[in-house]
Fold these 3 entries.
Entry 1:
Amino acid sequence: MELVCPAGNVPALKAAIDAGADAVYIGFKDDTNARSFAGLNFSDTKANKAIQLAHQKGTKLFVAINTFPQAGRWQTWQYAADQAADLGVDAIIAADIAVLDYISDKHPNINLHLSVQGSATNREALAFYQQQFGIKRAVLPRVLSMAQLRHLSKTSPVELEVFGYGSLCIMAEGRCYLSSYLTDQSPNTGGVCSPAKDVEWVTTSEGQDTYLNGVLIDRFKDHEKAGYPTLCKGRFQAGEHTYHALEEPTSLNTLNLLPELLQMGISAIKIEGRQRSPAYIAQVASIWRQAIDQAQQGNHQQPEEWNASLAALSEGHQTTLGAYHRPWQ
Amino acid sequence: MQLTLGPIPFFWPKQQVLDFYEGLLEQPVERIYLGESVCSKRREMRIQDWLDMASFLQDNGKQVVLSTLTLIEAESELKQLKRLCEQGQFLVEANDMGAVQLLSQQGVPFVTGSAINIYNGRSLRRLQQAGMQRWNLPVELSQTSLRETIAQAQDLSTEPLPQVEIFAYGYLPLAYAARCFTARHRNLPKDDCSFCCMEYPQGIPLASQNGEQLFVMNGIQTLSAKCYNLLNQIDVMREIGVNAVRISPTAPDMSEVIQRYNKSINAPQANAPKTGGMISLVADDANCNGYWFGQPGMNHQTNQMPAP
């Protein structure tokens, strides 16, 4: 089982490699990837450095080109695909049919992984991408229960990678347009959800309000820590109630499920967070490295401090098993 | 240009569904999409009921397409999907790539719904090769994006383009989750939801804490609170080459909406607004059209020129 860690810059990449990542995934410095944030990601020069650093240490490097190019800007995605191929990356993570088609046609020797943004949640969808584009692996959306995942792991035509830890998307990825409904960008179009350019923090007499493009996402009292206004994690009114109607500000943590994931033959665990700091990535990656190594040796005793540390690093200091745990659904 | 009616997004009692479609026989909607596209637990209408309804509508002169579920996870859902894709009598609208796979393997032509991500001409041509004969533009894309997609597809091949259909009226389908927000609202577990969606025939409105209507929770689906409405864009769509305009059911009686759209399609001069205002079927501030103009979807642009 591979540990696949995120890196938004060279220090984070080094941190992930040193903490024992089997593979690190990065994106180029534009909106061809789903973490298109200011100050983040790899220019051509930095990407060159990344591949050298990774391969020196025997770590794989994946590049995410996982947004959906609109026709007028196709050249940017084609350039990104060619660039990744020239670098000799170990895999390209893609979602759009045109991008997959282009890479499988022009660069048939490159491993293709279907991005979570490809939104394949069943074996027939996986079979489509495998038969049409020869994908080797798929990253699964965070919507399947453990029972569904177990079934899929028995019938999938490709390797499966699942999210282990990090920010939790609760909607089927690649098919969520909530962000572009309120702002002009979504993960599919702009490589970003709830874009920072549209965020406003307003101090009130009672605390702080958070807005996204003028829409009130949440209100915090003085004693509450105001969180980033990710729109599906706001408090809204439904009927008489004001509550986290869609989801609480919480992170996914599946450390406790690791023995089962291993037993199912899941090929890789993905850590979310290319926007996170090198220190964060070092801590999360090293816990997961130890956990995977130990589980692979048949030792399923997880020290309590692992989960405690992961909880402390998480959004709202809360973690959840998300959709893997049926009662959450 | 054809007027179509999308599947009912909400969970209505069987009799209401039957009455709804019977009422459409007299309405000038040429093509009707039938089926459950949101939640596999909604079984007031069984597959056989949908097939019977499809035959009834077809016998009465309507074109019929069977719409698949959008988020397909469980084995039981795949089985239902297979049955739909293999029935052999009616055209199918694929709302998940799993459906695209099953249909293309059989070599039967199909339609793709707006949740199938076609963002460019190359994707369009690739799915056309797989058997797609008509596609729906993803709801978040603009008229500019549509023009560019068509132009790119024409550059790639001289083959006639698949027909294009536009979601023009209704609550926008914005997201699908594993979690059921309606059951959660009622503090019920998803596995024992008491089919409480039926108590919300137009979903559960979700507003910001200062009272702005944002979304509608509809089981595992999240819809826009505002009603997308491109009634005054029919001429623009015609000029782009749009083949069909879709109305998504918002209420048990859609006759006024259908008639207004039909009039706009068939007698454009009679209905064309002289100024920039939108023809309103609901209160003006409950309409939106931002996506079509390359803006946030919730926006309501009254000036009809696309954003530069």
Entry 2:
Amino acid sequence: MGLKQEEILLSNNSINSNVGEIPIDKQKLAAPIKSALDKYQLVPEFLKVRGLVKQHLDSFNYFVNTGIKKIVCANDMIVSDVDPVFSSGLKMYAAPILVNIEYTQGSRGVKMRAEKNDLVIGRMPIMLRSCCCVLYGKDEAELARLGECPLDPGGYFIIKGTDKVMLIQEQLSKNRIIIDADKKGNINASVTSSSEATKSKTVIQMEKEKIYLLLNQFVKKIPIMVVMKAMGMESDQEVVQMLGRDPRYSALLLPSIEECAGINIYTQEQALQFLEAKLKRSMYADRASEKEGRALSILRVVFLANVPVRSDNFRPKCLYVAVMLRRMMDAILNKDAMDDKAKQVLRCHRSYLFKNSRSLRKHKRLCGEQASGAIWQLISLLFEDLFKTTITEVKRHIDTVLSKPSRSSALDPSLFLRTKEIITGGLERTLSTGNFDIKCFRMHRKGMTQVLARLSFIGTLGYMTKIQPQFEKSRKVSGPRALQPSQCYSLGVEDLELLSGEELHTPNSFLVILNGLILGKHRRPQHFAVALRKLRRAGKVGEFVSVFVNEKQLNKSVVVVYVGVRILVILKHICLRVVGMHIFWKLFDVELYLCADQLCVYIASDGGRVCRPLVIADKGISRIKEHHMKELLDGVRSFDDFLRHGLIEYLDVNEENNALIALYEGEATPDTTHIEIEPFTILGVCAGLIPYPHHNQSPRNTYQCAMGKQAMGNIAYNQLNRMDTLLYLLVHPQRPLLTTRTIELNATVAVMSYSGYDIEDAIVMNKSSLDRGFGRCIVMKRYSGVIQKYDNGASDRILRPQRTGVGSEKMQILDDDGIAAPGEIIRPDDVYINKQSPVITRGSRITSAEPLPDKVALSSDRNENPCIKILIRHTRRPEVGDKFSSRHGQKGVCGTIIQQEDFPFSERGICPDLIMDPHGFPSRMTVGKMIELLGGKAGVSCGRFHYGSAFGEPSGHADKVEAISETLIKHGFSYNGKDFLYSGSAAYALSFSLCPFLGS
Amino acid sequence: MEHGSFGDESVATFSLNEEDHTLANAVRFTLNQDPRVRFCGYSIPHPSDARVNVKVQTTGDPAKEVLKDACQDLMQMCEHIRNTFDKTVGELKASEAVKKKNSHSQEKAMDIDSQESDSESEESESN
Amino acid sequence: MAGQEEERGDTKKKFSIFDLPDVPMGQLPDHLQLHRTRVLCNNDAPIHTESVQYSGAYATVGVDNSLRFDHFRNNFRVEVVRLTEEDMEFDMVGIDAAIANAFRRILIAELPTMAIEKVLIANNTSVVQDEVLAHRLGLIPIGVDPRHFEYLSENDQPNERNTIVFKLHVSCKRGSPRITVKSDELKWLPNGSELVKESTPSDSASKPETYTSFSCSQETIPEFAKNPIAPKYPDIIIAKLGPGQEIELEAHAVKGKGKTHAKWSPVATAWYRMFPEVVLLEEVEDDLAEELKSKCPVDVFDIEDLGKG
């Protein structure tokens, strides 16, 4: 599931490129900086390669190309209980899902084979811009010819005419040991296992000094020693040895051993019998498991499902349990670990997270058994369920037919396949409602898809890159308005922890863990990691492989787990696996990482980890030199070349803990291992819009992230051709004088108290500005009518309007064809489609002031019924009560509209467009807004766009307050942006006011 | 329209329709300059009403008369300003031989006056 | 009350408190005089912003604050600083801000002009929506003296005395590059509207009824005979047309005031400001003087030879 989310981190620039600011920025930004190398150009290059919504597209492509086939192949036999055998094979999958069916019929001892190809079993909604989409691979001109916006990122579905986007789900990463404490203070070690066949959650809990296993298949808690014995570790000595020689560990284990002895379990057989008794009654009795006893089968398959059992060798599982126990005991013994518990949990979550499960706490037990995350996983689960339902249905039909004593004709199973539209309907319903209700996986989740709001381009992108958080906001670690640490990259808080280097010590010995699977052991983890990194930089190993060595804990005791594989073999093995996976599943961006918090080296190659590209530094000196950038500008070198030549590499959250990343090149010290490409890439789409966010109180930035999505502007190049249900467009969009990005509206703003209509964040607006077109917007609304056909053969029809007589006055806007003519002004109660249904005549009516039809489109719906869509356009100017917002989470409604002559004006005759109350500032602490106001004013007076993104000040890209003040002074203003204003109504001077310009 | 105390002529509130700060503020100025005025002020009762209330309190003379005089003063003042302005601009044009016609600003000045007198007459009618 | 007002100006003059024409015989104490004649710009906020208007304000110190019309008449003067076709700047000396502000307000809101109010769109296939196009047309200034016209009230028929009709018919041919429609494409129709009302019963004998009822051509009116009516500026962009797009419309301009809508405002803006005065609290000499001079971006200061004192 190649959910590469680094796109999110780097999102802001694509908007740049979208708005077409890049040429300007390139010149402006590249010119004055000589000392630090300007790596800015890498960002657009990177986005060209990865794209903002690549994770959605890749995910869907993977599902369509690979996942769906797997599902069908896994369920490709329909065996009728009655007689013959049917099998179906799959051929190709596009919007109509086609299958080949081959069925064998045994009658009177003679087997007959029949084949049918390309049977449609359902229709699959297609993600836009995916490899199945007609827009796939089209260039800008082709897209424009198709009437599509070339900037539209794709990555969403269109279901029943609405855009639906599936949210990225945050999820605990699988197959990792997570040490946790529950409410009672019991220490838990849990593993959410996921293999291709099984998904399970195994919890080992220490309660009252005894250690138990919690597994859903068992009714009660099972003493851990019983489990060990059931897996063949009959000797207590062996178990103790596995934990390590330190007597403290054996002491902790002692109560458990005693308990086991207390219930008289000494051998594997006794243990299995014990387990058998505790089993939950299962409805699906499995034939295979009954032979050898279900307990063993559960231990083999469900318990720690990620550890494979080959030829009944349970030893790897025993080792794994030992490691889990050992971790728990470390947590209990080690005071740091205990004190750090909350933090550790948090850290675990931060680093191990990613996608899935809306509310972990609520579904904690359930969650363990379902693994789903990336879009393709969810869809494939859904599809699998639907497919299985279909097959059951078909089987039932066949059985009914076959069980009939006399069959007149030969059986054709293909007839049953599309009987009920199970697949089509199911997919459509689920994606359009967002309620995933998958019976066979016991999964019930709501809000998985959201309507892609088309209010603004930013809002759209924001939705596409939104991550559904795992925890409810009420969770203690994050207050209701606090930022989630796991989202630090997408919301814009730099985690300082990433910058703290960790001292290197020579550890005794390290476990090598690949994707949560213990591979072996290595005495020199640094060498191992360095070797792996070298391989990665040389391109021999997948680019997303991460190596993470965690050596914080210097514990003298050695974890005695030997798998007995030599290091070279491991390396080779890993490389083979990694490279193999990388090639085999292009989508699985393979990653390795080493970790050794618990004396381990983690290698991760599973998908869904957040990775970001960073510049590699040797002893604090960036590997990217000026000539590299020049080559990039000249188009000789691409982003991929940077990767391939080892100048840039991807790091995931775990490996970042091993790295010392400098924010700017100037800050690099000899210890620095990596340098950020551009610091502002840390911010996400919405946060990147805020000018000077680092001067604001953080909740304001959070608000703005939410409000930025409600902004009006231009949504796409094809905005006038679209038939959206509701669309808001700004008549005169502008580019902010203080650039970060986006299209907005600039306004002259006075910050002052005036007229009393501006209390509580209200805004006083200038009527003349409104007359001249300030803030004017277009509202488009779609209405549609379907010409229905009825069962009795009757159908609706559209009539010519009556030109005279009763009711004719309601039909003035209709053309002769009975449909409203574009451009006619609609009055309340006007009919816009003169439709006659078999029973009654009716017309659709709307009542609102002075809108007019913009467009009329005729089309047909799924059932081939003609369908008329009318887009009603309504231009409106701002009115009292309309909401306005700056880019700092400061929203306000329009309190009153005042004539220009009553408005205050400055000594230069400048009359503001709107007035804000200064009381909105002190409590909100939005200093960034003050700076934006200043910068806007300076920008107007010197005729230059100012630049004000976060992190820009130290690197010299952004305009500093000092520089802005100087500009103001040069143009005859006060350095602090205050102006002398005159009252417009009475003839006296008012106090000073900020009288600057900003985007609203 | 006039309301306020009916018995005492020296106190009155005049409500002027279709007027705003433009007239009211200027009239307040001239009223204030009149030594007979003890107090004067104006208010706009509601911003969505086009209406101004002017309150006048005199030392004894009928408020109506004082307001009329104030308007008269204002008219004369505007008349004078207009004449001075015309004269200055005319001289400037002549002296500098500015060829371009300056109808724009002249127009304005004239209209200012006509407007002033309009409102004045309207106001006296309402009295 | 500041003794001098300046309208739309920024010139500087030598100025002294005692030159003020309206200083009465009895002297006010210095601080009151300052209070009365100056707005003081302090660091945080200006003070003495409200002018002292009440005639008896200084009665206790024996100073009459009332206005004497003859005094005003003798002392008021106007000085024109700059005068061009579109821009004027003049000083008014000896007038209160209340009066100056009234002029400013009248200029912005109460002077009538002609502006396009009604747009009849016959065809518009451009990307600019009908109502946006109409709004843009409305804001185009029209070069005509509004005094020759009457207001069009609700019940009036549009006629040659209250309506100006313009026609705009532009199309961009297929295959040609896109064109920009500018305000010079607005053609004056002195004979009124050419669009025929649909609802009129077709009476072949009489002239078809249009949206205006002009009794004569506006060209016969002497004021317009010499000066054909047109937009004030020929280069205002109205819309852009791509190949195959077309705009055909008729725009009716009527008389109105800036109060109703800013399009009828005859000025871009009009403002007054008080006369600025900079007082040095102490003598500044030598290098400091140089520094002070160089500090000011608008060159307020100059250095005098100290020898004269």
Entry 3:
Amino acid sequence: MTAVVENQPILGTGQQIEYVHQAETAALLSGFASNAASLCHALSRGVKPEDLQLLIERTEAFSKVIVQLDMSEPRPRTYSDLIPFQVWRESTDSHDSGETGGKVNEILGAVKGRELDGDKLDEAARYFRTLAAKLAERGQTSLFLAAQDSPRS
Amino acid sequence: MDQTTLLLSGLVDVRDRHLRALSGIDEAALVASPAPRQFLNVYRDSVRNRLHWYLSSCWGILDAMAAMGEDGWTDSFLLADLASEATSNFVRLAGPHLELSRYLPPSSRVREDLTYLLFRAGGLSLLSRTHERLVSVVIERGVEWSSRSDEAARSAVAVSVPWLETLTPLRWPFAVHELGHYLLPGGDPVPELIDELQDDHRWGHVERGAFAEILADAVAARYCGPAFAQALAREGYLVVSLGLNRSGRSAAGPESLSVQQPAARDDYISVRRRLELLACPELPMEALPPAWNLGPRGKEAAKEPVPDEVTVEMRDIALGLIDGGSSGLDSTCIGRVAVLMDQPEPVAALTPVPDRGLVERLEMILRNDDSPSEAEAGGLIGLVVQEALTDAQIFSAAWRNEVGKDREAYVSALRIDPDDDEQLSSAITEVATRDTWLAQSLQSAAVHRWLNDCRQLKEDFSAPIRTRSLGE
């Protein structure tokens, strides 16, 4: 499973390609947040962690991505490396990476047997759901802008 | 059809889009020169990785649903997460789609059968030089549908179809919708018509935009039957805008097409409202999953940009312009076609359901070695002569199969392992075969109908000559 946000080289130039990469990155991050939300929700409904292996793996991968995004001054090698930071910061005003990382670790702790009551799991599920929706909206906006910028073949 | 199965059909649809991309890349790589072929192979790997990612996300949630028992299948939270997976993984296909399009060989670009479909839908003749210049199909590098017309030659329409969507006729009702933004069946130009209506009804640019969508929907629904509403519902949640109007005289007017405030079609009318206005019995509104969020978007407690009573009036005007909205489809016939298409095999014509009295008469004639009367002979011939299907019947049967399966069938379709070459190859072949047979059904039925029309024309011409010679 890919544990990092994919850094793809930008082939050619153009605003459209940049928008599409923003859309893809936002969609990927949204998927991570959505999986974390599903995990919290299922745990709060009493599903056992052994039935949720795929969601747990995805949430572990999400925690590694958040560590990467938590760098206050990223030093990207290429312009495309900047996109995940740009997308994350622009779409997660109230969801800073520190807070998100803390919540992800809480959930992973609960999976490993630490106590976490149902209310806290529900609250975390709502938090990740909102985060996923914001990132998804960011992705859709970028995709829309890319479509507007589209040259015709 | 219920909310859960419809939502699951959407998940399988996103799986199929990945499989189609793989199939299309393989086909293009066969005829590509060495350098583009290498790039195409890179994108093939990229799409395959994305498919793996998508399916494992779905499995994660489906496992959770299964562990919750029957309640899991109606859990609105998890259903919303599944819908979100479909949306985000559809968006993730946009990158490879955009970049690989430059490496596609010219032969894999525009499909002639799609162009012919638009000619049929527009009531245009393939043999007319004037008509030939009216409509063209171009390949869109992005994943959104659009259409535009040339300012200098207003009647010429270019329909932009994403490359991926050229691979399956299931989505071609959208091409008919795009055509409906510029041409009415028979060739009357739409923009001028809307100009007049806008003046008469004192519509603002939002009302104008809403009417343009309603009219194009009516054109597509009339030509494609219930398939258009089903396709619209299942596409509507994947992209926020569901297309743009790009012509110089767009639905919203050029002033609204700024980058900061993009003019999406949702700005004029939501997909949910469009579906309500289409009032398709094959797609009850209560079957639409709330997780698809097809209503007005973007604002809290968002309202439709145009009041419901105005859009109802607009729908009636639109139906008046296209001479009624019903495609007049017989559900039994569609059911029979759907069964054959699910084999899968191409279906271009059906033998009519025989009248019981006529069958009894045929049996009696055979038993008694009788000769049928002239009137009976016509009916008896009808028992064995197949009737060519319409595009609406074929589209509707294909969409019935697309959205009418049960939950287990959809879940099982999502349980393929894309890392297993054999399973992947078999799934790609299955999807490609269905698409090919559907395309062949549409094309063969069109030829069948054309031959019938020619035969009828010949008879019409011959009749007066025969009458005259008899009189002489």
